[in-house]
Every structure is written in structure tokens, then in C-alpha cells.
Amino acid sequence: MKNEKNKNRKLTTASGKPYVENENTLSAGARGPLLLQDFILHEKMAHFNRERIPERVVHAKGSGAFGTFTVTHDISQYTKAKLFNQIGKQTNVFLRFSTVGGEKGSADTERDPRGFALKFYTEDGNWDLVGNNTPVFFIKDPKKFSDFIHTQKRDPRTNCKNPTMMWDFWSLNPESLHQVMILMSDRGTPYSYRHMNGYGSHTFSMINAENEMVWVKFHFKTLQGIKNFTGDAATDMKGQDPDFAQRDLVEAIDRKEFPKWALKIQVMTQEQAKAFPFNPFDLTKVWPHGDFPLIDVGILELNKIPKNYFADVEQAAFAPAHVVDGIGYSPDKMLQGRLLSYPDAHRYRLGANYEQIPVNKCPFMVNNYERDGAMAVNGNGEDSPNYFPNSFDDIYTDESYKEPPVQLDSLVADWYDRNGPGDNDHYTQPGLLFNKAMNDYDRHNLVENIVNAMKGISGEKKDMIIMRQLCHFFRADMKLGMAVATGLEVDMKTVTDKLKHS
Length: 502
Ligand code: NDP
What we know:
By secondary structure, this protein is an alpha+beta fold. It has three domains: 51 residues, Cytochrome C Oxidase, Chain J, CATH 4.10.91.20; 257 residues, Catalase core domain (Catalase HpII,  Chain A, domain 1); 73 residues, no CATH class. Helices cover 29% and strands 15% of the residues. It contains 14 helices and ten strands. Strands 1, 2, 3, 4, 5, 6, 7, 8, 9 and 10 form a ten-stranded antiparallel sheet that branches. Strand 3 and strand 4 form a beta hairpin. Helix 3 packs across helix 12. The longest helix is centred in the C-terminal third of the chain and has 17 residues. The protein is globular and about 80 Å long. The structure holds NADPH dihydro-nicotinamide-adenine-dinucleotide phosphate. The site of NADPH dihydro-nicotinamide-adenine-dinucleotide phosphate (NDP) has 19 residues, from helix 10.
């Protein structure tokens, strides 16, 4: 810890009154009682009582760093976003990594997806790409999100993590299989934040200077190489150093080993989207690289640890709704849900003026008529008008930022059993993951991790949950189903008979 700023400075209260001394409360006589008038005691105790802000309900444990993004390839044929408009152009960024399910004090090496939330401070406003270290997610409709997360948190009675809840939910939601398999592979326990990929995960759009739109996915490939803990090594590390990933990031940057990722995009035209065998906006699916090759864009580098963790990492607020000109949303239902829920979470956790906090602040011009609210610390518009339109300002809306219209041809409905072709195929891509992307070592560890995790299922519904989940593994790949069943010592005939008679 450094204290250069505190050389020869008086200790004062928050209102600037110098302390006479700081360790003894005013008292009636040397042995007390204390005097109510010692307001410095109140100030210290009252501020201490308010040090904690609400913990993020997901992604509570995190680490962050500042850095830069540098354009290495021209993608202006796809986007007019100014941050991409010149090779060599640099944009400042802040990146927050996290685990998902655990509390703020939980271990960094838990088996969990990792958050990969990136804020680009661009001249056209802040762009937040709020992704994970996996290209897919457990569910494809945001109405399921709170139910899903409850299964990853604590059992309402025991207050312990409960594998029965998790596997019950996953087995009842086959769309989760793809993400469950990635989670159960060694990529579910990355060695450090430096050694994993990041993905925007959702489908977004890009709009070029001619106002033509394509669909796009973002991939950040680690240049440190993929490195994972095995299940056992991750468990050991939880005991040895629960803050392993935080320490690794800080120490690497302190050593000037600045971690880097190559940003690449996949691009899909409107016509290709119509012909794609799956819904291209389904967050449980990837776009095959063979059909949609990765296109180089630039290099992300992290090179500065925040001076104060709370100020920048704990108060960082990312929102997928924050896009910039040239980048837009897509009909991805999970993205649509997150457009609402992220800013809502920040207003609850940090207050209505969370974008005035330095780490969240757009360093370029911000003009609007939002006023007041707790912690309005940016001058609050001073004495200028607080309504629009008015006859005094010279502030205008800019039509040149208008996005092209999107054609809809849908009926309003809950589309539960009316999905299009491929929408209920939850098995082809997990099968490809197992057969094509993984090698023998990956497959061995995947099966071992699944078996160890499923051994935690207990209670009267145990056989039913195991059977249901096994069916999903069998449908993805017979060898996978068989290996998990063998590992769990499942007598298939007995379980099937039991289920028939239950
Ligand atoms: P490719 O062979 O072109 O790509 C396979 C991808 O799988 C690579 O990006 C690789 O990442 C990644 N991968 C390797 N091992 C794992 C693992 N244990 N967990 C997660 N990802 C892993 O195949 P396709 O594009 O045809 O996709 C085949 C399957 O690969 C998909 O069904 C999907 O499950 C998986 N995948 C596909 C991605 C995509 O965007 N197309 C992205 C990630 C996974 P890396 O190069 O970093 O090693």
C-alpha cells in the first residue's frame, strides 16, 4: 500500500475538521462513560456500518483491470463504429472478470462459468460487451433466469449448495445441456482469468456506413493459451488460496506481463440467418466456425490494476443495453431480457446516478435532462434547463445515428411449443462438442467431473433426476451416456423399472 499522498497532512473529519486525536473517545472522567457530543466517534462508527453495498445477485466475486483495445484489421465493411474505424486506433477499456454463483467471499476456482464484462470508453459513448468465458448459456428465455440462478445458490432450508436442485433443473431443461457440458469440462475450472477465452455470447448486429446490417458474434481468444485446473486441483486450490485468480491477475500485471486477447468476430448475413438450421439468436447454440469463420479485429490488453478495488471493481456497472453507433441488438431473447435487467440491478445496487461513478462515466460529452436523485455529483446540469424541448439550449437529437428498420414477420405469442425447425434440437451441438472439439483427455475429465457432480444428487427423486439427465447425455452421444451411467454405477434396468412403476 502506498501513502505518498499522506505526507505531512492533518487527519480530519469528512467535513474537514482536524482531529485532536483519534484513539480515545471523549469521556466523563478517565474511566467513562462516553459523551454523546463526540461526533467523530459517531462518524467513524456510522460510516463503518454503511461500508457494504448490496452484493451483486450474480457475478458477486470479481477482479478487474484497465487496459486498451487496438484495432489490427479493417472491419469497416461491417460496422461504422468509430472505435473500429482505423487500424492502430486505441480505445481505453475496463474489464471485470467474475465467477457467477458464489458470494463475494467465495473461492475463485469454483466450477462455474466466468464473467467477462468489458467496457470500451469510446468517443461515441461507452460500449459494454457483457459476456462470459463460454459461447453459450444454460437457458434461452430470460423468464427462466431467476429460477435457474436459485438452483445455483443455497438450499432454502439447509443454506448449503444443493446438487439435487441443480441437476433437477438442468434435467428438466434440456436446452441447458450444451452449457452444462462446457461447465463440466475442465473449462469450468479455468486456471486463471488470463488463461480463458471471452465471448460476447449473444448475437449482436453491426451496421456499416451504408446502413447495411449483419448479425455478429464476438470472440476474445486468450493469447496466454487455454489452461485449466482439473476438478481435483481446483478443489485443492479453494483451500490453499480462495483468491487465486485475483492474486494471479494483480501479480501478472505488477510484473508487467500484460494479458492479451485477440478479438475476432463471426458475421452472418440476413440471408444466411434465414437459411441457418438453428435459430441464430438462440443463446444455447454456437455458429459453426466452418460456416462462419473467425475474422480478425484487434488486440485487447490489460495493463493497469485499479488503485482502489471498491472504487472501480465493486462499483463497475456494465449493461448490454450500452451499445454504440454501428453496433446494435438482435432478437436474442436472453439479450432482450438483459437490456432491462442490468441497468435495473445497477440502480438498485449503486443508485440512479450510477453512471456518474468514475469507472462507469463516459469520458466524452454526456448531455441529457436527467436530474437529481441520490448522489448527483456531476453538477446536476447546474443552472441549465431541465426539460426538453426548450428555447434556451442548443442541444439536438442526431438522425444520422438512426439504425435501419428490422423486418418482423411474427405473431405475438409465448412460443413454447411453436418453435421453428432446429429450435428444440438440444443435442447436435453438445454431440459435436464431445466428438469434435474435445480430445480424449478432455472427454475423460468431462465424464469424471459429471460423475462426481451427479453423485451429490440425493433424496426421493434421485433416480428420476439421474435417469432424466442420463437420457440427455445419451441423446448427445451414446458413448457419453454410457460412460456417465457406468461411472454412477447405474443399473439401467432397475432404474427404468422403478420409473415405470412410480
Ligand atoms: P471447431 O472445431 O471449429 O471449434 C471448436 C471450438 O471448441 C473451438 O473454438 C475451441 O476453442 C472450442 N473448445 C475446445 N474444447 C472445448 C471445451 N472443452 N469446451 C468448450 N469449448 C471448447 O468446431 P465448430 O465451430 O464446428 O463447433 C463444434 C463444437 O465446438 C460446438 O458444437 C461447440 O460445442 C464447440 N464450440 C464452438 C464454438 C463456435 O463458436 N463455433 C466456440 C466454442 C466451442 P479454442 O479454439 O479456444 O480451443
